[in-house]
Specification:
By secondary structure, the protein is an alpha/beta fold. Helix content is about 60%, strand content about 5%. α10 crosses α11, α11 crosses α13 and α12 packs antiparallel against α16. The structure holds zinc ion (ZN).
């Protein structure tokens, strides 16, 4: 998992109020048997779940201390009283056998702690029979068992399971929080690169980490930057060349359209609030286009996204998209 390699201490960088509430519930003796942490993908729910488990099992006053024997065992994935489901992801990927194993294990007393904790990420991936099996243990859990589920949304978890969990939403981070976290995790990366990815990640740290570490993603970001230069310079040829390069795959084209939309939206936000972006290209875009032109470009991008999703010919799509953007900015 990327988050463990780049965040070896499993630090949680945002949602400070939620984090404090959870750790306070440990010292205040108000722990519940089941929690659901929900929010968009890659936002840090698993990191928070593990951080919370560390705090519950931690032996020091400052929880989690990251240095006691219990914290260290969790960091090295070696704690006998913490189970972390790391199986397949995707719809119906969590089968009843996994939940049966958890149930069986939960009735055996903890090895060395007061609690036995089970983290099940992506609870929305449970099959119906798995969710029903899970419900049984949630209805009558052993006193020492504690379950932490994560999900993309509240609605994606069966109502019966949801009703037995205390649920908390995990929110996106601020740009400043993303910059702080990335700077700590990637001390060798240039600060302008970190700021740029923090800004376009929309507060999603996992996404920002992908930008920084995935070369194919980096290539797409570079291509998007060139396309934006084509818009700034009103050069139809450059714009078309970039879109033609991206259109070899629908997924690549969708990513590029998302990227272009984020950049244009950022330029609009700065123009509306009469501020200048620290990103030179976003500032240049805001300078060269009017608000109406940027809005028209965003509309065109949005329409082409529907086109990609409804299987239009990709060559035709990049030609049309170029023509419509050129029309919008002239
Ligand atoms: Zn500790």
């Amino acid at each position: 998992m990327a988050e463990i390699e780049v965040n070896p201490k499993n630090k949680f960088y945002s949602n400070k109020a939620l984090h404090k509430m959870l750790t306070d519930s440990i010292t205040g003796g108000r722990l519940c048997h089941a929690y659901l942490l929900y929010g968009q993908k890659s936002i840090g729910k698993k990191t928070l779940a593990k951080n919370f488990a560390m705090a519950i099992l931690c032996k020091n006053d400052e929880k989690p201390c990251f240095c006691c024997s219990s914290c260290n065992k969790i960091l090295s994935k070696n704690h006998p009283d913490l189970f972390f489901y790391e199986g397949k992801q995707g719809k119906n990927a969590i089968h009843i056998e996994t939940i049966r194993d958890i149930r069986q294990d939960a009735y055996i007393r903890p090895n060395e702690s007061d609690y036995k904790i089970y983290i099940v990420p992506n609870a929305q991936d449970m099959t119906i029979s798995a969710a029903n099996a899970f419900l049984k243990i949630l209805e009558e859990p052993p006193p020492y068992a504690l379950f932490i589920l994560t999900a993309d949304s509240k609605q994606s978890v069966p109502e019966t399971v949801l009703s037995r969990c205390i649920s908390y939403e995990v929110f996106p981070m601020t740009v400043e929080e993303v910059i702080f976290a990335l700077t700590e995790m990637f001390p060798d990366k240039p600060s302008d690169e970190i700021s740029r990815f923090a800004e376009i990640s929309n507060g999603n740290l996992g996404r920002a980490i992908d930008f920084l570490t995935d070369t194919s993603y980096n290539e797409m970001v570079e291509l998007s930057r060139k396309a934006i230069n084509g818009i700034i310079n009103k050069c139809e040829y450059d714009l078309l060349a970039c879109l033609n390069k991206a259109n070899s795959s629908r997924a690549g084209m969708l990513e590029m359209i998302t990227e272009l939309s984020v950049i244009v939206r950022n330029a609009m936000i700065h123009k509306l609030s009469v501020t200048i972006s620290s990103d030179e290209q976003i500032a240049a875009l805001g300078y060269s286009l009017t608000l109406q032109q940027m809005k028209d470009v965003l509309d065109v991008l949005e329409k082409s996204r529907h086109g990609i999703e409804s299987n239009v010919n990709m060559g035709l799509l990049s030609n049309n998209l170029t023509a419509l953007i050129v029309k919008a900015i002239n």
